[in-house]
Amino acid sequence: MEETQRGTHLVSLPLPEKLRCMKAKDDNVAFHTLSFQAPKIRLLRSLVIEERHKMQVLDFAVFPKPEFDLPIFCANFFSSGQLNIIVLDLNPLHDVITQMVYKEKYYKKLLPLGEKYCELLPWGGKLTGESIRFFSPIVIWTKFTSSQSKHDILYSAFQDYYKAWLELMDQATEETDALQILHNREAQHKYLTWRAEKDPGYPVLKKLFGDNLAKEITRSFLFDGVASLGDKSFLDYFPGYECEDGTINNKRTVVGKSFQTRPWNTTGDFIGYEFG
Ligand code: BLA
After folding, report:
1. 89 close to 107: Cβ distance less than 8 angstroms
2. Span between the terminal Cα atoms of the chain, in Å
3. For the chain, which terminus, N or C, has the lower number of CB atoms within 10 Å?
4. Structure letter (DSSP) for residue 218
5. Which atom of ligand 1 is the closest one to the Cα of 59?
6. Model pTM above 0.95
7. Per-residue pLDDT tens digits for 107-152
8. Where in this chain does the entry annotate a coiled-coil region (predicted)?
């Protein structure tokens, strides 16, 4: 937060009414929330969960205002004590597999950063075809057993990636073209809609807080904007999930898991078609 405040003016956002006195079911579970906005930031929010001697979670994301086509900062760290499941990325707002202009604009300069960490924090194994579309060529997707050295590397990667994002924010100029703003808003809404429905963290939240509270945390805190930034539904964006009776398939993937290795080469080209 200090680092963020150096470059912008953060204004604290109140927690949604229903979450003000939220409580985990188990007294051994502590959690902490933060949320802010800033001139170029629609929502910066963080959720930390700690279960004594067991689990630790950080879910930290920054969503730009629709006037900016900046990537979405995404740090999702889950630790069960032994096993760590990590996603750290500047999630692209627009497709970087087919849209070269967007990819070049934000990621070309960051490729060396991605390369610095891709050996230290190696690819975490098969990823779903759906998730890969939300990730950038510099994504850190990794799993490791806890050790001080791995945690140090991850913390350093977190600092480097976040500084890189702050720098992009600093340089970003406001879009004035109404169509482009709409395009940015819809892309962010699609992202929020995806994560509010399919985030792998949901079962954990449900276990800790119960179904109702977990839904509230997801829709009005973690992915706030899902109900206000656009009108389209999950099935409008992701029709492949529609069941015969019109409901949403509750599987996380309909495409299946692929991408056993990093589907980006060192120049940032997508090479996943060979595996996918
Ligand atoms: C697993 N979390 C995963 C996996 C991914 C992510 C890719 C591997 C399983 C899979 O491929 O679905 C994270 N996936 C993401 C992210 C995006 C995405 C960030 O598509 C963004 C677009 N993880 C959390 C939080 C918790 C958590 C907050 O971020 C818990 C509160 C838990 N993630 C968690 C657990 C697993 C997991 C327990 C392993 C279990 C599983 O795979 O279902």
Report:
1. no
2. 38
3. N
4. I
5. 28
6. yes
7. 999 999 999 999 999 999 999 989 999 999 999 999 999 999 999 9
8. none
Question: Which residue spans within the chain are E strands per DSSP?
Answer: 11-12, 29-38, 41-51, 56-64, 72-79, 83-91, 127-128, 140-145, 257-258
Exposure on the CB side of residue 246, measured as CA atoms within 13 A:
1
In the block, tokens 């692929």 appear at 258
Give the residue, by CA position, lying nearest to ligand 1 atom 41. 200
Phi, psi of 49 (to 5 degrees): -125, 135
User: In this predicted complex, what is the ipTM?
Assistant: 0.96
The closest-lying atom of ligand 1 relative to the alpha carbon of residue 130 is 20
State which ligand 1 atom lies nearest to the alpha carbon of 89.
Answer: 19
Question: pLDDT digits over 145-186, tens only?
Answer: 999 999 999 999 999 999 999 999 999 999 999 999 999 999
pLDDT tens across 61-109, in order? 999 999 999 999 999 999 998 999 999 999 999 999 989 999 999 999 9
